[in-house]
Amino acid sequence: MKIQWPHYSNNKSFASDNNAGIHPTILEAIHKANHGQFVAYGDDPYTQEALRVFQQIFGENTRTFFVYNGTGANITGLACGTKSYHSILTTDTAHIVCDECGSPEKITGCSIKQVSNTLGKLSPKQLHGFLECKGIEHHSQPKIISITQATELGTVYTPQEVKAICDFAHQNDMYVHVDGARIANAAATLQLSLKAITIDCGVDMLSFGGTKNGLAYGEALVFASQKLAQDALFVRKQNAQLASKMRFISAQFLAYFEQDLWIQNATQANQMAKYLEQCIQLHLPLLVVTKPVESNAVFVRLPETKALLMQQASFFYSWDLTNSEYRWMTSFDTTKKDVEEFVQQMKKILTD
After folding, report:
1. Where would a tag sit more exposed on the chain, N or C end, judged by fewer CB atoms within 10 A?
2. What's the CATH number for 261-351?
3. For residue 304, what pLDDT is reported?
């Protein structure tokens, strides 16, 4: 049977870094891992070496588990640190609140308490009120603070901000989980190691993302201690996150860290976001950049009627329609030419 493959424009999308393809180095790593047969479910040399690399990066006391996707990493980590009568504290823009179809609540049984965000972030000061219910049987008990790095608004927590949250959590018998779908972009902005912005700050568990930064699929769940990770083998399996052909996830991470591909990709995406911001200010003065550009996201305010025309020409997502706010994302494969062509396309629509 002959299949008619869809044909798409070569124009780069600014809708999401999920829309980018696979980095050629990662694709080659998958291809290499496809030769021969190996024991399944992680008992293969690729996985064992990748686990060793993660331990080198995050510390010898850490333990890592590979999963299929970011939601899988989040729900597995959160489930390992909670009982059903616990609650999880996070921002009202968090992925576990807005974009995971209620799976964190379903899997953990926990209540998720939302905190108003300040440019995507939360602070210890906002969390003190949740301590009033501790020890009271009528209320769910706060157990995990979940933050996103880089945030859903493209901003980046400093190590001092993360440490302050971790100190508050540990003083009150809580854990800190980091949704690190774009952790590489945060590290590129801060120009610090992955360990320095997570484990060294006191983070207890990290959903380590790669799909938005050049991988085909697959994420990692990193625990700061063996104790917290003791149930992860079984929780991962129950959550349908145990890959039988795990080597195809592991091989990607080996290539990702080899010769620092992870930071090169993130740096490119971040630089293109800053370049996009500069081009907007230079060529699209009627638009307002509404958030600090600290990673690979640019938020803009533009007239809704023009936005609809722009989305037809080059699709992107709305963020806050009440304020006519939209999000443009750059990726590891975004170039200056892509940015310039996109901005010129938007300029033409705005001036017509």
Report:
1. N
2. 3.90.1150.10
3. 87
